[in-house]
Design goal:
2 domains; four-stranded mixed sheet
C-alpha cells in the first residue's frame, strides 16, 4: 500500500466522508464485517459508481498498519472530477475546437499520470475515464503527472459507449486506436476530436472500437508491435499538434 495516498478510516469517518459528497475512488471493507454495515454503505454509495472491495481482515491490517480502521477504509480522489460537458465549455471559452482523450480501462496509475502530463502539454482540454474498471485519481497519479493534473479537467462517466454517442451529437469525431487502423500520418485530423486509447494489454474494447468514426495506428518497423499506452499517447497527440501548427503557419 502506498502511504502517500489519502485514506479515511473507521465507520463514522468514512460515512461522513460519503455524505460530504467528496469524490471517493474506492471503499475497502473487511470480509466478515456485519451485514447491516455492508448494507448501510451500499445504500450510501448507490448510484455513485464507487467500487467496494472486500478483503481479508489481516490483509487490511497490513495495508493500514497502526490505524483503527474497524474493517473500513476509503481512498479519496486526488482531485475533484468534473462533468464531461465542462470540458466542451473549456474549449469554447478558449475559442478552440475540443480535443478530448477517452481512456478505455487504463489500469496503471503511472501510465495515467504520464498520459495526463503529455495531454496537458499537447493542449488537450480534458480526459474522460469510466467509473468502473479504470485507475482513479490517486496521489500516485498526481505525482506522476508532475503538476499537470492541476491544469487539466478529468471526468468520470458510467458508460463510455453512451458518452461517445453524446459526443457525436456534438459533432465531435471519434478516433480509435488499434494495430489494424490506418496510419496516424495518413491524412489530417482536424476539427472537434476525441481520441480513444485502450487498456495496457487488451487495447480498446471491441464495442468501443465499433463506434469510432476512424481507427488509427502508429506504424512501426521494429520487432515490437505495440507501444506503452502513455508513449503512444504522446506520439498521437504531438502529431495532431504538428498538424495544427503547420496549418496555422500556412494560414489555414
Amino acid at each position: 500500500m502506498n502511504n502517500s495516498e489519502q485514506y479515511y478510516y473507521g465507520r463514522h469517518a468514512v460515512m461522513e466522508l460519503i455524505k460530504s459528497g467528496k469524490n471517493l475512488n474506492k471503499l475497502y471493507l473487511s470480509k466478515g464485517i456485519r451485514e447491516s454495515t455492508v448494507a448501510d454503505f451500499k445504500r450510501s454509495l448507490e448510484g455513485t459508481g464507487v467500487p467496494i472491495k472486500f478483503i481479508d481482515r489481516n490483509i487490511m491490517d497490513k495495508m493500514f498498519p497502526e490505524k483503527n480502521h474497524q474493517g473500513i477504509a476509503a481512498e479519496v480522489s486526488a482531485k475533484e472530477y468534473c462533468e464531461w460537458e465542462e470540458i466542451l465549455a473549456k474549449a469554447e471559452e478558449r475559442g478552440e475546437e475540443p480535443l478530448i482523450l477517452l481512456l478505455d480501462s487504463i489500469e496503471d496509475p503511472h501510465n495515467f499520470g504520464a498520459i495526463i502530463r503529455t495531454a496537458e502539454a499537447a493542449g488537450v482540454h480534458g480526459i474522460i475515464i469510466p467509473k468502473n474498471r479504470s485507475v482513479m485519481l490517486s496521489e500516485t497519479v498526481a505525482k506522476t503527472s508532475a503538476g499537470a493534473l492541476e491544469n487539466i479537467l478529468i471526468s468520470r462517466v458510467t458508460n463510455l459507449s453512451q458518452l461517445i454517442d453524446k459526443l457525436k451529437e456534438k459533432n465531435i469525431w471519434i478516433y480509435g486506436t488499434d494495430l489494424k487502423g490506418q496510419s496516424i500520418y495518413k491524412g489530417k485530423i482536424t476539427g472537434a476530436t476525441a481520441i480513444v486509447l485502450g487498456n495496457e494489454s487488451k487495447g480498446v474494447s471491441p464495442n468501443i472500437l465499433k463506434k469510432c468514426d476512424v481507427v488509427v495506428t502508429i506504424p512501426m518497423i521494429g520487432q515490437v508491435n505495440s507501444l506503452n499506452v502513455s508513449v503512444a499517447t504522446g506520439v498521437i497527440l504531438f502529431e495532431l499538434l504538428r498538424q495544427k501548427l503547420s496549418d496555422a503557419k500556412d494560414g489555414k
